[in-house]
Amino acid sequence: MVPFEAEKFEPYMKTVVRPWLQRHVEDGQFPGWDGNLIHFYRAKNPSAKGIIVMLHGFCGFFGKYHEVLYNFYEEGYSVYFLELRGHGLSYRPVSSPSMVDVGDFDEYVEDLKSFLDTIVIPDQTENSELPDYTGLPLFLYAHSMGGCIATLFLEKYPDIFQAAVLSSPMLDINFGSTPRWKVNLTALGTKLLGWNDRYVPGQGDFDGKPYFEESGASCRERYDYSFRLRIAPENQDANTMNGSSCRWARASLRAIRRLRKGISSLTMPLLILQAGKDAYVDNQAENRLRNEVKSALLIRFPEAKHEIFNSEGKTLEKYYKVIFRFLDQYAEA
Question: Which Pfam family is one of those matched by this entry (predicted)?
Answer without folding.
Answer: Hydrolase_4
